[in-house]
Amino acid sequence: MSAPPAEDLVKQWESEQARLRQQVVEEDTEDWQISPDFSGLERVGGVDLSFIKGDDINACAQLVVLSYPDLEVLYEDSQMVTLTAPYIAGFLAFRETPFLLEALQRLQRNQPTLLPQLVFVDGNGLFHYREFGLACHLGVLSGLPCVGVAKNLLQVQGVYKSEEHQSQIAALQKGGDSFPLTAASGKVLGKALRSSDRSSKPVYVSVGHKISLDTAVRLTHSCCRYRVPEPIRQVHAHTHTHTHTHTNTHSHY
User: In its UniProt record, which GO terms are filed under biological process (predicted)?
Assistant: First the structure.
């Protein structure tokens, strides 16, 4: 059976995104989220799919679980995978989610006591063309709270790298300072966060599932030793080791 033409696939994926989008929960659902020091949170996960430069088919699907608040690695899973879905901008999740979900399901089967209580996703959540990025997709399908943290600004829904945006970044004085990413509609889709005193470049935080934006920002900051939250930083460290391409591995958005 031949693959459906791209426009058919886009229609199919758009309707699937719209259906799943209805299931996203944009508020705190867990007791630990409401606690000032996240009391009760013991395990945070990080996921990413990294590609070897020049190869858009084979990738390394990675999951790490860290203790909280110490941020020590408790569990690590790397699998080389072959992607079957085509790359279409705005639909990255359809290529990547199945492999990240498999990693979480493997952990659930083999060591359920290590399942993370929240997953950081290297990418976006609601801050997306149709308010349904990778962190939302993985959150809804896994049922776990998820937060999207991107290193680069996705220019969507009227949010641009404008002079105003740059001056807002410059005004972030210290780690924990943030400003909202407001869509043309007036809806706040995420926040730019100065994640540590040491880094003047912000990260872009958005809700994936089962968490409020303010809690997502607070938790992201609490998990940052450097610019990128530790669960995602550890994913990258392990991925580079796994693919043996320190110079070639890069992340796709």
Answer: DNA repair
- The answer to whether 245 and 53 have CB atoms below 8 angstroms apart is yes
Residue 189: inside a domain: yes
Nearest CA to 127 out of 33, 217, 9, 38 is that of 217
- The domain tally of the chain equals 1
Q: Is residue 153 part of a domain?
A: yes
Closest CA to 192 of 158, 229, 217, 218: 217
Q: Is the pLDDT of residue 157 over 80?
A: no
Whether 10 is in a domain gets the answer no
CATH of the domain at 87: 3.30.2170.10
145 assigned to some structural domain: yes
Question: If we measure between CA atoms, which residue out of 92, 169, 99 comes closest to residue 129?
Answer: 92
pTM for this one?
Answer: 0.91
Q: Cα 81 vs. chain centroid, distance in angstroms? A: 19
Q: If you compute the radius of gyration of the chain from its CA atoms, what whole number of angstroms results?
A: 17
Name the residue range of residue 84's domain. Answer: 23-251
